[in-house]
């Protein structure tokens, strides 16, 4: 046997001679033959998906087609890098010439948005190649999970299929996507997901015939009872079947006798001793670290698989634990996996969960509050009860929640800790942080109730509670409590220097905050000089890390642009040099995202571009997003603390600065432009609409249109009509009518509002027939049936009434008086819907005349009272 050459040796790529076709191969071939939809394979690892894709690639190439395989797990820094890698791979795999230099020149110019660049270069390649079909295979797409550019990549895949209407060359291109992730994990916005239009390909285990086919291809002859024993353990799992067959091949080569017991011994040795072989190593690690998976496994072991929700079922399927069936309860795939996930082992894992609380305590002591919360949450989600936490554990959990900004849960945990604690000192700390949490949630009455007893009690927290009480009164009403706020904070300033229970750092924090509170009161009382002095004292007393928190107040009372620039540069220097982070949570005590938004806006308004770019770079690093997303997030998530003028400044810059907006998706830009236009000041309305108009009229924006767009466009039409600019107004109405199917479907009430403004234009042009036709359309859109389930109508019934009244008035203005007729008078009418003319008694047609769809025959039109001539 020295010349023996093993056939089923370890391989990454399976050769065609050993490849076993499954239903998935045939399904994938049909999807590509049709070219109508992207195919996608979302399945567990070790199921043979990569070999399925490479086999398809080889077959397509034998047919003279072009198929390019891309492994996304190699990683890309941004969308542009990934797109360019795809283009380069297509160029390398094809024999086309003449476009490489053109593509490289356009890249060197760097003027195109990444998506537009990819779209243009892809079309150049498709136009240059003579291949009947081009297939782009994107494998390991789960590598996109968590990447900031994932939506851009996947929406680009989807958009290509819709772009075929404009670019027929795309009829020869299709995509195949493959990975181990749920579509909802891969793309945040399901409306731009390629999975919505794709064809799912099911890659299942081998059936018995396919498993035996592998033996035949390998030239291995096994007794029936042995092959049955293998299938009995693996149920056709490709990786396990291959590995066990390979071990049996070794036994045959060694001239050993084999039977069903040999298979049992091999399974025990390979899988059920060390549990470190794929795919069991991954499966057991997942069960150990994911409480949801363990809970789902327990349900399966007790025969309650039908109770699992879709998310749990999907998680188990993608982990390779269960089979997938839409009609049956999930079940564990095979005996090997079932043995590795025994009830005894799961119980041992559960018993170790109490150790999570010990680890959480260590994280708390080291100031790693997010990690501490995560560990306690893992304990609770794995079946642990909040009631099993002891006095110290619940205290540390509540404090960790406070430090991570989860104030509602912090209050609940700390209140429970307060009832368990027997220490007055600990209860003081607890109640103080309950008060702070309530204040940060805007619950001022609860905050005051927590601080008042602490502010008069002897102890190290008295002065802190006194200051916090003044802050709570300030946040409640400066006007109503100004005297009390001043009294409390002056008392704090008087006592703080001699307070021995506070460290120097804590004293500085309390003193600076007291000065700040006094400045707020003085500013509200229009005592600008006093306010300015108080804010300067607050900044002077504060630590460097806290100084940025007072920048906004100082900027608001600064005298002249030079003083504003000096403050801006001083604070920016601290933020940049000391790398001071801002709190993402709004309204927190200290430097938060509202302060950063204001500093960026002031830098733009004072034309301090270097300072702006330095601050923006810091903010981007804080959020781990690009400049566009950072600016828009800071602008749109700002609360009332941020001047609306600054919000507009940030949005305008994000949308009009080419180097920033080119990295954004069309939908992101459209959303930002919508917010800017909605909040625009009168002097910038024209520029805001122009920016919005360019985006909303992009053909690719059609799938993002909504009722919000109908409102914005209708309002602008109304403004243009009022100002006499009917040319642009009619251009807008024409656009809305071209997209009527989308815009009208969002809300009949909102679309009726648009038609109302269209009616006004017709009236201004003295086209009363078209105005009357618009009025009839309005009445139809806001009929009782159409608005019964319209959320806009339910929220704004007065709008519906106004639209009905305006439409009825318009019809009435142009219809002759009908009150002269008696009920049984016979009159001649015209049905405007059909053009039919007939005679009837007045009582039979009076409702139609009132609604406007019937008119008296030959009735003259009266001049509209809205006519301005």
Determine the N-to-C terminus distance: 108 Å
Give the total of beta strands.
Answer: 8
Mean pLDDT: 86
Number of helices: 44
Can you give the helix content as a percent range?
55-70%
Segments where pLDDT lies below 50 for 5+ residues?
814-819, 859-869
Instruction: Indicate the radius of gyration in whole angstroms.
Output: 35 Å
Class computed from helices, strands and strand pairing: mainly alpha
Strand content: under 5%
Specify the overall morphology: globular
Largest sheet: 5 strands, parallel
Spatially, the strands of the biggest sheet line up as 2-3-4-1-5
Structural overview:
With 869 residues, the protein is mainly alpha-helical. It is 61% helix and 4% strand. The chain contains 44 helices and eight strands. Strands 2-3-4-1-5 form a five-stranded parallel β-sheet, sandwiched between helices. Strands 7-6-8 form a three-stranded antiparallel β-sheet, covered by helices on one side. β6 and β7 form a beta hairpin. α20 (407-420) runs antiparallel to α21. The termini are far apart. The model is unreliable at 814-819 and 859-869 (pLDDT under 50).
């Amino acid at each position: 046997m020295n010349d023996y050459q093993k056939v089923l040796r370890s391989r990454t790529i399976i050769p065609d001679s050993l490849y076993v076709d499954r239903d998935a191969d045939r399904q994938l071939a049909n999807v590509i033959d049709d070219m109508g939809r992207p195919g996608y394979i979302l399945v567990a690892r070790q199921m043979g998906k990569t070999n399925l894709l490479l086999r398809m690639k080889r077959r397509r190439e034998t047919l003279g087609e072009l198929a390019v395989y891309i492994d996304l797990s190699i990683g890309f820094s941004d969308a542009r890098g990934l797109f360019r890698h795809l283009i380069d791979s297509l160029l390398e795999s094809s024999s086309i010439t003449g476009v490489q230099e053109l593509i490289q020149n356009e890249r060197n110019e760097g003027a195109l948005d990444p998506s537009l660049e990819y779209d243009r270069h892809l079309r150049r390649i498709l136009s240059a190649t003579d291949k009947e079909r081009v297939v782009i295979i994107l494998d390991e797409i789960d590598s996109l999970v968590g990447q900031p550019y994932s939506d851009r990549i996947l929406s680009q895949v989807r958009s290509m299929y819709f772009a075929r209407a404009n670019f027929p060359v795309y009829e020869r291109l299709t995509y195949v996507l493959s990975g181990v992730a749920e579509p909802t994990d891969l793309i945040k916005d399901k409306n731009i997901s390629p999975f919505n239009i794709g064809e799912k390909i099911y890659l299942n285990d081998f059936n018995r015939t396919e498993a035996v086919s592998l033996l035949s291809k390998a030239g291995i002859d096994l007794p029936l009872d042995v092959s049955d024993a293998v299938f009995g353990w693996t149920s056709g799992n490709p990786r396990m079947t291959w590995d066990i067959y390979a071990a049996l091949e070794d036994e045959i080569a060694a001239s050993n006798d084999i039977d069903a017991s040999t298979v049992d011994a091999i399974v025990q040795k390979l899988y059920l001793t060390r549990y470190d072989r794929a795919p069991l190593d991954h499966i057991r690690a997942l069960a150990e670290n994911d409480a949801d998976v363990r809970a789902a496994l327990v349900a399966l072991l007790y025969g309650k698989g039908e109770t699992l929700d879709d998310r749990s079922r999907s998680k188990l399927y993608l982990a390779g634990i269960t089979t997938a069936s839409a009609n049956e309860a999930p079940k564990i795939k095979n005996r090997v996996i079932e043995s590795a996930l025994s009830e005894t082992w799961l119980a041992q894992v559960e018993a170790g969960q109490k150790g999570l609380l010990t680890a959480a305590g260590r994280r708390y002591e080291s100031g790693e509050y997010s990690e501490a919360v995560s560990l306690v949450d893992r304990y609770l989600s794995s079946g642990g009860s909040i009631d099993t936490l002891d006095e110290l554990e619940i205290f540390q959990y509540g404090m960790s929640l406070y430090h991570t900004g989860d104030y509602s849960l912090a209050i609940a945990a700390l209140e429970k800790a307060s009832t368990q604690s027997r220490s007055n000192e600990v209860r003081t700390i607890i109640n103080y942080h309950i008060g702070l949490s309530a204040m940060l949630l805007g619950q001022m009455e609860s905050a005051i109730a927590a601080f008042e007893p602490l502010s008069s009690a002897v102890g190290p927290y008295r002065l802190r509670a006194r200051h916090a009480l003044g802050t709570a009164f300030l946040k409640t009403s400066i006007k109503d409590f100004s005297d009390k706020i001043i009294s409390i904070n002056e008392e704090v300033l008087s006592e703080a220097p001699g307070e021995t229970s506070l460290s120097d750092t804590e004293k500085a924090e309390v003193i600076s905050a007291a000065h700040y509170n006094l400045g707020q009161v003085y500013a509200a009382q229009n005592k600008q000089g006093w306010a300015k002095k108080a804010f300067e004292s607050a900044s002077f007393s504060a630590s460097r890390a806290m100084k940025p928190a007072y920048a906004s107040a100082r900027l608001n009372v600064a005298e002249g642009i030079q003083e504003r620039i000096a403050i801006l540069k001083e604070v920016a220097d601290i933020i940049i040099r000391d790398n001071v982070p801002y709190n993402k949570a709004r309204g927190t005590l200290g430097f938060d995202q509202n302060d950063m938004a204001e500093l960026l806006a002031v830098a733009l308004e004072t034309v301090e571009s270097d300072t702006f770019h330095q601050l923006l770079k810091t903010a981007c690093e804080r959020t781990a997003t690009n400049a566009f997303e950072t600016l828009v997030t800071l602008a749109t998530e700002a609360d009332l603390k941020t001047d609306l003028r600054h919000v507009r400044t940030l949005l305008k810059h994000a949308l009009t600065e080419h180097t920033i907006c080119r990295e954004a998706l069309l939908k992101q830009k459209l959303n930002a432009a919508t917010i800017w236009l909605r909040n625009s000041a009168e002097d910038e309305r024209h520029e805001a609409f122009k920016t919005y108009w360019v985006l909303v009229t992009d053909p690719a924006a059609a799938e993002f249109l909504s009722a919000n767009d109908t409102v914005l466009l209708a309002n602008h039409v109304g403004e243009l009509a009022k100002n006499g600019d009917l040319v642009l107004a009619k251009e807008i109405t024409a656009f809305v009518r071209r997209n009527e199917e989308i815009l009208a479907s969002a809300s009949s009430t909102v679309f009726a509002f648009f038609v109302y403004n269209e009616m006004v234009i017709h009236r201004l042009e003295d086209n009363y027939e078209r105005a009357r036709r618009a009025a009839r359309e309005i009445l139809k859109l806001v009929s009782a049936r159409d608005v019964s389930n319209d959320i806009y109508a339910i929220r704004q019934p007065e709008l519906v009434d106004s639209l009905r009244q305006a439409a009825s008035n318009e019809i009435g203005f142009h219809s002759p008086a009908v009150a002269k007729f008696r009920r049984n008078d016979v009159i001649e009418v015209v049905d405007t819907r059909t053009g039919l003319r007939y005679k009837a008694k007045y009582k039979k047609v009076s409702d139609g005349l009132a609604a406007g769809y019937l008119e008296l025959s030959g009735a003259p039109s009266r001049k509209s009272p809205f006519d301005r001539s």
